[in-house]
Design the sequence.
């Protein structure tokens, strides 16, 4: 009889001969386990930043689609209104001969005001007391197109957190253009404003909608100072009035009057790296010198209006 250790081998007969087959041991040693964990940690460290950038890029594509849908609805509305455009803000009676209506009423802040969190307050029509946005039937009655997925701004109402309803603003060129000449003036005459779609001089370089920085957004218009940001102006003359967003790896979405959309990458740190606080505007300044973001303000000015 052949004796063997049953824990390590099994007797087998092959061609009349008895052989011993050694069992493999399936357990990791502690050192092997630590090596595997270390490799996983290294791979995770390499992959997670790439995955985060991929997620941000996907959000940027979604943001571009939102801008495109809104701008398409914006054009469809004007086609139904004899080329008259919605306004970027509530217009004073003496500056509104065409009786244009605000594209989105209600200002945003960090309070429990319904305009911040209730879609039925200023977005979804509820006649006769709440007209909603005039673009509602032209943008598929979709709440999502008014807000970038990367915007996590929220307000607290009765102890519960609600996302704010909007991140998108319209160019002030479709209002009174009160900041275009750098100093606030609703009657400025240096730069064009557009009240009808046929007024727009260069549709392919006239932006309509932009994602505004959550600590800058208030009314539904974003202001750009064109004066001081023209080619040949000294760099120190450029001014940031309102801040566009920088959610998408230091970039944000714009849509244009010819209905194309794009993600624009910011070059200067004043805009590209502007800090984000999704719960308060504390310490966030507006209407400041552009600093190293002068080139970004120049790009926005170039794509906002033209001199009269």
Sequence:
């Amino acid at each position: 009889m052949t004796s063997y250790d049953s824990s390590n081998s099994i007797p087998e007969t092959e061609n009349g001969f008895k052989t011993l087959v050694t069992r493999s041991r399936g357990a990791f040693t502690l050192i092997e386990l630590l090596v595997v964990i270390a490799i996983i940690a290294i791979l995770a460290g390499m992959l997670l930043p790439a995955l985060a950038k991929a997620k941000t890029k996907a959000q940027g594509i979604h943001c571009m689609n939102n801008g495109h849908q809104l701008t398409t609805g914006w054009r469809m509305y004007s086609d139904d209104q004899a080329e008259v455009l919605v306004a970027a803000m509530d217009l004073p009676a003496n500056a509104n001969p065409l009786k244009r209506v605000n594209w989105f009423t209600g200002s945003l802040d960090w309070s429990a005001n319904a305009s911040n969190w209730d879609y039925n307050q200023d977005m979804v029509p509820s006649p006769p007391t709440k007209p909603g946005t005039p673009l509602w039937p032209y943008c598929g009655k979709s709440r999502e197109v008014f807000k970038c997925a990367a915007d996590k701004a929220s307000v607290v109402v009765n102890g519960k957190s609600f996302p704010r309803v909007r991140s998108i603003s319209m160019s002030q060129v479709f209002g009174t253009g009160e900041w275009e000449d750098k100093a606030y003036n609703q009657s400025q005459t240096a730069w064009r404003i557009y009240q009808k779609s046929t007024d727009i001089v260069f549709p392919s370089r006239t932006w309509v909608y932009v994602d505004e920085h959550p600590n800058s957004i208030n009314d539904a218009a974003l202001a750009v100072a064109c004066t001081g940001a023209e080619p040949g102006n000294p760099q120190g003359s450029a001014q940031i009035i309102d801040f566009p967003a920088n959610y998408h790896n230091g970039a944000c979405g714009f849509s244009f009057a010819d209905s194309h959309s794009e993600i624009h990458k910011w070059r200067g740190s004043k805009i590209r790296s502007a800090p984000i606080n999704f719960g308060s505007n504390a310490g966030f300044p507006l209407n400041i010198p552009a600093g190293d973001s002068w080139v970004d303000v120049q790009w926005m000015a170039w794509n906002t209006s033209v001199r009269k």
In short: The chain has a mean pLDDT of 89. The longest strand covers residues 9-14.
